[in-house]
Amino acid sequence: MVTELIAVGTEILLGNIVNTNSAYLSEKCAELGLAVYYQSVVGDNPDRMKRVIKTALDRSDVIILTGGLGPTEDDLTKEITAEVMGFPLVEDLHTKELMEAYLKEYEKNHPQRRITKNNYKQTMVPKGSIVLDNHNGTAPGLIMEKKGKTAILLPGPPNEMVPMFEESVYPYLRKKQPEIIYSRMVKICGIGESQVAEEIQDLIEKQTNPTIAPYAKTGEVHLRITAKAEDEKKCKEMIKPIVHELKKRFGKDVFATKEEKTLEEAVVDLLKEKNMTLSLAESCTGGAVAARIVNVPGASEALMCGFVTYTNRAKRKCLGVKKSTLKNEGAVSAKCAKEMAKGGAKAAETDVCLSVTGLAGPGGGTEETPVGTVFMGCCCAGKTTTREFHFTGNRSRIRGQAVAQALTFIRDSLLECPSLRRATGILGFL
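Request: output the structure for the sequence above.
Response:
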């Protein structure tokens, strides 16, 4: 079924609030196998609302509208949709009872506030519609069906819309849709989007169902494998060989096959698996690598310490970088990165230390060392290696790329440890 999402509210158009409802509904519609071809936002204007709703009903089987169901004069979604579809409004006694009970409790908890008569506007519903109880507010949801077209009206506040959709709308749409869509993600780090695309070109050219869609992230490439079938079990069976083939092609560069798993989580999991501790010695990233690591619940079991050594003096004092190295090679050099990593591991008494030093710009670059030059060192179980990078973009983008590559560097170093191969095999973490 072709589905269309319409968010109602001038405050969305003005940027006063972020339209998270459409993102949520798009994801849920995809799960249900509904084809969302269009999304739109319209302000609280009767004429424009009519045009948007008429257009949506002409080209889509199901339209889902969020917002504009409140008690004020500019809450017109119900009235305009009912008018366009030819439904008269009538009072719904069940909704009235629920609303009065809700308002009574509200008044008890907020004695300084007065309940106004305009709340009863919400008890009027399109005749013959399916009324959806709102257990978190006063505005009921509505489903209107006519001549093969369906309009679903949901309240705008996410804390009302989300539970109403999951409790009432999702089961309703599931019955109308014989097939579902199920997706699984394969996440890759360490190689670029163009290389990934080249490696899977043959799979994409012959794909039908399942399909593979690549998404480029900073320092990562995500491949979403999507199948359509009568149930989730069948979808998983169809997706499994594709995932196996992608893992075979990309090997250790695959860091996750679950959508919710992040690169920093993969790093923390490896550290815990090896019972190893981590410290960080950052210059141009200013603690941003540490910030990514501490996003992971339980990271304190692995991350012991972080040094932000922005000046040469700090590099010498905290990490033991040699004065001669800073004078002859410079702070932005492979030798400095190596000494930072070794010194950080020693100072923090950790098994692993990752160092980052570079030029994020916009100034400070030279012909020999342009802006975007970044060196990293990783001291892992006593062995220290370095990597050189040349990133592009503004200061924020350069630092973001450096953080992503730093996490990849830590992970690669851990995977190369002989103990990990003996314990689980190099891909045992997947």
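DSSP finds 16 helices and 17 strands in the chain.
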